[in-house]
Amino acid sequence: MELNKEKITLIADCEVTDKSKTAGGAVVRTSKFCADISECDFEGSCFVQTNLCATFKRSDMSGDYFEEVNLSGAGFERSDMSGDYFEEVNLSGAAFERSSICGAAFEEVNLSGAVFTDGDLSGVEISGCKLDGMTIDGLDVRELIEFYKKNHKENCDMKKNVRKAVIAGNWKMNKTRPEAKALLEELKGKVSDPGCEVIACVPFTNLETAVEATKGTPIKVGAQNCHFEKSGAFTGEISADMLVEMGVEYVVLGHSERRQYFGETDETVNKRTRAALAAGLKPIVCVGELLWERECNITEEVIARQIKLDFYGVSAEELKKCIIAYEPVWAIGTGKTATADQAEEVCAFIRATLAKLYGDDTAEAVTIQYGGSMNAGNAEELLSKANVDGGLIGGASLKAGDFNTIIEAATKG
Ligand code: PEP
Question: Which pairs from 113-122 meet CB under 8 Å and 24+ separation?
Answer without folding.
Answer: 116/141, 120/82
